[in-house]
Amino acid sequence: xxxxxxxxxxxxxxxxxxxxxxxxxxxxxxxxxxxxxxxxxxxxxxxxxxxxxxxxxxxxxxxxxxxxxxxxxxxxxxxxxxxxxxxxxxxxxxxxxxxxxxxxxxxxxxxxxxxxxxxxxxxxxxxxxxxxxxxxxxxxxxx
Length: 143
Known about the structure:
Elements (H helix, E strand, L loop, with lengths): L2 H10 L6 H9 L5 E2 L2 E3 L2 H13 L9 E6 L5 E6 L8 E6 L15 H13 L3 E4 L3 E4 L7
Antiparallel strand pairs: 1-2, 2-3, 3-4, 4-5, 6-7
């Protein structure tokens, strides 16, 4: 993400980006796979926020910052910066269904989400399949 993208992002989001997301966008502005969801560019993030807010997507919160989505996009991985856990918990948000009120977070923070995914990849639990993403290997189990 260059300086222009960063300024546009700062104006489009009313809150400070979580450190891990700021770093992710600074180093690689989109294109990484998080299982079946692809990381979004800063422009895609702003477009998704605007779309969800203007279409009044079911259960959308202003504290959500999407960072990855499926190829439609209809399902996002979001950081809830208003969740009170410092860097924000990670949830899966579906445009039609939102996030269930009693839904467990995917991860307690984006830092944790990225760390667990990295560890699982290094342990050979996942493999990359073109146009599909990072998928769990058959028979792979957590150690």
